[in-house]
Design goal:
- The strands form twelve sheets. An eight-stranded mixed sheet has the order 14-15-18-21-24-27-30-33, covered by helices on one side.
- Strand 14 and strand 15 form a beta hairpin.
- It is α/β, with parallel strands linked by helices.
- The chain contains 21 helices and 54 strands.
């Protein structure tokens, strides 16, 4: 080591320079620091480094050198030249780790006076001016800022004399070696002459430079500073530092406005009425906390977070751009940027969820579990050990009919564009598709982004504007396109669904959807030359053509003569708000409007309101259509709600009465439908349980009937009536209105009479959660132990009834359907097979007992 000649402190009094050592990897903070340097981890919604810069600036240290080694761009892009932070910043980057002293030595060309060195991974509010005054008073070569701690094992011990002169060092001792509780904070005030004692290569202040200088009798002093200091070296210390900030134990600048004692909220944040806040807590900028969510004690929420209704966050640290879905529970957890926790997920004490991780519905992270960046955890998993190397599961974006998620969170515009490019690439240049969306702003935004992706693949687009899914199906058949995409967003909601249709208006079959999925994840997009980019044709009035063709399928004059009174409840802001009133007006109905079912948070109360309005107006029926136009709720003239399965049976029966010779129904539909078909001399064809199978088989038999028994590819004239009436809310309603226009025994037909004429049935359904990874094993055990009839799922016949167990294609659940001779029998069958499914998840178990 080179000799040191102390030249005095004249220059030091005229300058305030500091060096921040910010090159550490932060390995003990992983997985938070897998792709982020430790000084950039947020503390109370500011990077730790920013707190250090504020501290230096407040004590007059405005000329700062930052030494970097690990992921330097993250720091340089944040601080830049320091102007935005009120300081001047320059950088020294280590190509290889040089140790604390070696890194500071790189700045020797600018350190021409007394300077301060501080670690970039410490949170402190110590009085640096007081330490500087001590240094100058003692005319020290170096002053080490010290503090006293309860457990000194992880720090360097320092013993000083009465005047503060250092007598002894010991790095990270065992308890048998502990001779003091006074430790080195990594904050030093130095004279530039000390740089002469630092040789080239790896050098550390506490291990190499200071012990050598002490042996030579150099004037090294220790100053025990007052105030808070925490070395954020572990996840536990990181969490505790947050708690200390919120509890007021350390003086730092907390961003945001203090709206109540101990509660800070950033600009642009929306707190809906009914949000529960209990301090201390910090909420970042542009967050959205929905009604019924709760944040309580010692919680930090980063910028641009969405906390949905029912979510509970306690003693947790949440970084920016995190989604906490409905009823998510966080207790003492750390959640990094971009993570998404789906509905009913939970993470408990010490759990760490790294950047861009997706936690599935009903998944639980037990205490202390760590999940590394970019992982996708399936729904229904109980994770008891850390997830480090497992690959992400990209297919979670796609369901059985397309893609669904939260608009602008799961599905931002760039995702919609990639989906459009992927779909267009599977179709090929020169093809055309029809695209429509619901009226929500996010749906319209995403539609434009999707169209851009389609055009980039050379695919032309018919833009229908805002239209329902049945209108889009009709448009595909009318325009003879290669397919279509519908984007739906419920009024007032943020869920977005993109549904992909083929050239017949059916949902894509699994193989076609998989091709789109593969193109999306591989980014295998067909980018055509500029001259071949697709073009857009706008057809917003095609909805009128749909209504014309829908009414062409019934006797409009006969319905008009009946002057039916109808109470309606619908999304007035969506396209259904234009279609439904126009349809009823053209059919001569007197309409009473009661509200907006699509916006109702409680569908049951909306149904009761509709039923009461029917009685109040003595109306013929009540109808509530969803904004997408594929589901309808009916109330009869006696104020009775027509349940989903009864409504399905009613619409199927009315369709058969009007001349259809065959109809498709899903595997789980009530057995009474076969009885209904026999009464009307028609065939009822069972299909798989998914909507595509029902629509496809029904279209096949419809085309066969239209061709006079000869199979045909497609009729000359497009019509909404080619499709199953149970999948089009307005078609189902028109079927009912056409039936009510008739008479029976000289009296007008009443909806209550039509419902009462249906054969009675007792049908039930239930859901049983099951992790994805157990579904296959459970199905195998079920098939081994139960006398299934074959086909989809496991179907078991019982005296007077049946049960069907189906693994859901989109969620980690089994669906059970049961029918019996009474409601009690159907409920008993549900309970029986639910118990079997639960027991099989816990182990093979004995053979199941006979069903009741």
């Amino acid at each position: 080591m080179a000799p040191v000649t102390q030249k005095g402190q004249g220059k030091a009094q005229g300058g305030r320079k500091a060096v921040i050592m910010a090159g550490g990897k932060g390995t003990r903070l992983r997985p938070l620091t897998c792709d982020l340097p430790k000084p950039m981890v947020p503390v109370a919604n500011r990077p730790l480094l920013e707190h250090i810069v504020f501290l230096l600036r407040s004590h007059g240290f405005n000329d700062i050198v930052v030494t970097l080694q690990h992921l330097p761009e993250a720091i340089t892009s944040f601080l830049q030249d320091g102007r935005d932070h009120g300081v001047k910043v320059q950088y020294r980057i280590e190509e290889e780790p040089l140790g604390t002293a070696g890194s500071v030595r790189q700045a020797r060309d600018v350190l021409d006076g007394t300077f301060l060195v501080i670690s970039g991974d410490a949170l402190t509010d110590m009085d640096l001016a007081e330490a500087l005054a001590f240094h100058r008073q003692r005319r020290a070569l170096a002053t080490l800022v010290l503090t006293r701690v309860e457990s000194p094992l992880e720090y360097g011990l320092v013993v000083t004399g009465p005047d503060g002169r250092i007598r002894r060092f010991l790095e990270k001792p065992g308890w048998g070696q502990v001779f003091s509780d006074t430790v080195n904070t990594g904050i030093y005030i130095m004279e530039p002459e000390i740089l002469e004692a630092i040789g080239p290569g790896v050098q550390d202040f506490s291990k190499d430079v200071f012990p050598a200088l002490l042996r030579r009798g150099a004037p090294l002093y220790g100053f025990v500073a007052r105030g808070y200091w925490s070395d954020i070296g572990t996840l536990e210390q990181y969490r505790q530092s947050h708690y200390d900030v919120l509890a007021g134990r350390v003086r730092v600048q907390i961003p945001g406005e203090q709206i109540a004692p101990g509660i800070w909220v950033g600009e642009g944040t929306l707190l809906e009425p009914g949000v529960v806040l209990a301090g201390p807590a910090v909420i970042g900028r542009h967050c959205h906390l929905e009604r019924g969510s709760m944040l309580s004690g010692l919680t930090t929420l980063g910028d641009f977070c969405l906390v949905r209704s029912g979510a509970v966050v306690k003693r947790s640290i949440v970084w920016p751009r995190v989604l906490l879905d409905r009823r998510v529970e966080l207790r003492g957890a750390l959640v990094a940027s971009g993570a998404r926790l789906r509905a009913d997920a939970a993470a408990f004490e010490g759990a760490v969820i790294a950047r861009d991780t997706t936690v599935g519905q009903r998944t639980v992270l037990r205490p202390g579990v760590k999940v590394w960046p970019g992982k996708t955890i399936d729904a229904g998993v109980i994770l008891g050990s850390s997830l480090v190397w497992a690959p992400p599961s990209p297919a979670a974006l796609f369901g059985s009919t397309g893609v669904s998620g939260i608009a602008n969170v799961d599905i931002p515009p760039e995702v919609a564009t990639r989906l459009g490019a992927a779909f267009g690439s599977t179709l090929g240049p020169g093809r055309r598709v029809a695209v429509a969306s619901s009226a929500g702003p996010a749906a319209r935004m995403s539609k434009r982004a999707l169209i851009a992706g389609l055009l980039s693949a050379g695919v032309g687009v018919f833009d229908l504007g805002t239209a329902t899914l049945p209108v889009l199906r009709f448009a595909i058949t009318l325009l003879r396109t290669a397919g279509g995409v519908h984007l739906r967003q419920r009024q007032g909601g943020d869920e977005l669904r993109l549904e992909f249709l083929d050239q017949r208006g059916l949902y894509l079959e699994r193989g076609q959807l998989r091709a789109v999925e593969n193109a999306y994840w591989r980014e295998d997009f067909a980018r055509v030359p500029a001259a071949q980019v697709g073009q857009v044709a706008f057809l917003p009035r095609l909805v009128d053509k749909y209504l014309d063709e829908l009414l062409a399928g019934v006797d409009v004059a006969r319905i008009q003569q009946r002057h039916l009174e109808v109470v309606v409840d619908y999304d007035s802001g969506g396209v259904i708000g234009l279609l439904l009133p126009t349809l009823l007006e053209r059919l001569g109905c007197r309409v009473h409007t009661v509200g907006d079912t699509a916006a109702a948070s409680d569908p049951a109360s909306a149904a009761r309101r509709l039923a009461q309005a029917v009685l109040d107006h003595q109306a013929d029926l009540g109808a509530a259509a969803d904004s997408n136009g594929d589901e309808v709720v009916l109330v009869d003239d006696r104020g009775r709600l027509v349940g989903d399965e009864k409504l399905f049976a009613l619409v199927v029966g009315l369709s058969l009465r009007r001349g259809r010779r065959a109809v498709a129904v899903p595997a789980q539909a009530p057995a009474v439908l076969e009885q209904l078909g026999q009464q009307l001399g028609a065939r009822v064809i069972r299909t798989q349980a998914n909507p595509r199978s029902v629509l496809e088989k029904d279209l096949e038999v419809r085309l066969l009937q239209a061709g006079g028994g000869q199979a045909q590819e497609w009729p000359e004239k497009a019509s909404p009536w080619l499709f199953h009436p149970a999948f089009d809310a307005l078609m189902a309603l028109v079927e009912v209105l056409a039936a009510l226009a008739g008479t029976e025994a000289g009296a007008p037909v009443r909806l209550s009479g039509l419902v009462d004429q249906l054969p009675g049935f007792h049908w039930r359904q239930a859901r049983v959660p099951c992790p994805w990874q157990q579904k296959g094993r459970v199905m195998r055990l079920l098939l081994d132990q139960l006398p299934s009839e074959g086909g989809e799922g496991v179907r078991i016949t019982h005296p007077g009834g049946w049960a069907l167990v189906l693994p859901d294609a989109d969620e980690p659940v089994f669906r059970i359907f049961a029918e019996g001779r009474s409601d009690e029998e159907a409920d008993a069958l549900l309970a029986h097979y639910s118990r079997i499914l639960v027991s099989l998840q816990q182990g093979p178990g004995p053979d199941p007992a006979p069903a009741p």
